[in-house]
Specification:
The protein has 15 helices and 21 strands. The chain is α/β, with parallel strands linked by helices. It folds into three domains: 171 residues, FAD/NAD(P)-binding domain; 111 residues, 3-Layer(bba) Sandwich (FAD/NAD(P)-binding domain), CATH 3.50.50; 106 residues, FAD/NAD-linked reductase, C-terminal dimerisation domain (Enolase-like, domain 1), CATH 3.30.390.30. Strands 1, 2, 3, 4, 5, 6 and 16 form a seven-stranded mixed beta sheet that branches. The chain has a five-stranded antiparallel beta sheet with strand order 17-18-21-20-19, with helices on both faces. The protein has a four-stranded parallel beta sheet with strand order 10-9-8-14. α3 packs across α7. One of its GO terms (biological process) is 2-oxoglutarate metabolic process.
Amino acid sequence: MSAREYDVIVIGAGPVGENVADRAVQRGLSAVIVESELVGGECSYWACMPSKALLRSGAALRAAQAVDGAKQAVTGDLDVAAVLRRRDSMTHDWNDSSQVEWLQGAGIDLVRGYGALTGEKTVRVTADDGSTTDLVARHAVAVCTGSAALLPDIPGLADVAPWTSREATSAQKIPASLAILGGGVVGAEMATAYASLGSAVTLVARSGLLANNEPFAGELVAASLTDLGVTVKTGLDAVSARRTDAGLVAVELSNGTTVEAEEVLVATGRVPRTGGLGLETVGLEPDSWLEVDDTLLVRGTDWLYAVGDVNHRALLTHQGKYQARAAGDVIAARAQGTPVDDAPWGTHVATADHDAVPQVTFTDPEVASVGFTAASAEKAGRRIRVLDYDLSWIAGASEQSDSYKGQARAIVDEDRGTIIGATFVGPDVAELVHSATIAIVGEVPLTRLWHAVPSYPTVSEVWLRLLETYGRP
């Protein structure tokens, strides 16, 4: 049977792949998406959406309990079954029919199965029944297969059937006890969620909590987790794991102690989902992250793109979708022979991947950050000034909660007079980070920020307080 031909072949139908295909189609190209699992990808079914659904009920309950007058109305605990039902509704019970309908409406074809390169611009898709479909791209192939949980080489760990983020976000039963290995975003968020849902949680974090953030972020989250009943163990490694006669997982730590729990969640990092992609057929290293330029073109090729987690630039859904918009647009421009705007901050580049990546960790308190930390700015050789402010001193914070705790930090580039980094820790600070992102991407001078007047009483007033800390010119 002859191969089916398209302008663009996209491997992976998560939010990233969907956006690459959609942008290309909007600009007049034909596109097909190849997907071996569910259309909508990791974010829709095993990451962003279900994890936030698991977290939200506990956060809402604690927010009510922190306000006099509201806390008296709270007379019970979380309804765990209702939390899980809400989570299931957010994932559409792991049914992707609505996402498939969206593809059809957008004019994007779908081929289900495992896609692998067989040569330049050629992809073979193998369905579950073993049948194959050959696809040929006139212009580009985009690899948007994402990343998977890293399983560290700890003796016995694979044998105890550990959870990864997938099992943690899709569990239909809450374990009585849960051990978590890793203190990054997944570890901290799932510790918050499962403690809220009644598990006895032990979190083992060798490098501390949220080590890539400002130090106060991990400290405030660790204190909050401890208040929730989580046992936080830092500076320790897991050295072995086994199932006990009682069916529990026993994890031996580097200090000789052992943690026992009904389940163990491994959250120690990510690996690229590039195995079996046929990268070797086009001269690339199999099972590897794919290095790209700022237009998301894989280095050494003029037709292969790697977008989202798989290029290891910024492993975040929103950043992957940002890359996808640039990639879809530049694929169309190159295919149609129109100018490519690949200068910094141009239409066809992902410049923000370097110094302006926003992220929110939905712990309690939330951690929202963008750009440089003080440590990373100094490492990059920037001459900086650090501005700190206690968010509990803000009038809007006292309106929001009777026991508000939080911290804000801004990093000023002294040579340019602009903010290059910001971190906020506190209740609902996720809604603060976009203003910081705009200030950083727009390179807004501090002298101009004085004229951006925050509404009163809101927590956004912290912007005025940070400027006052810096001092008016």
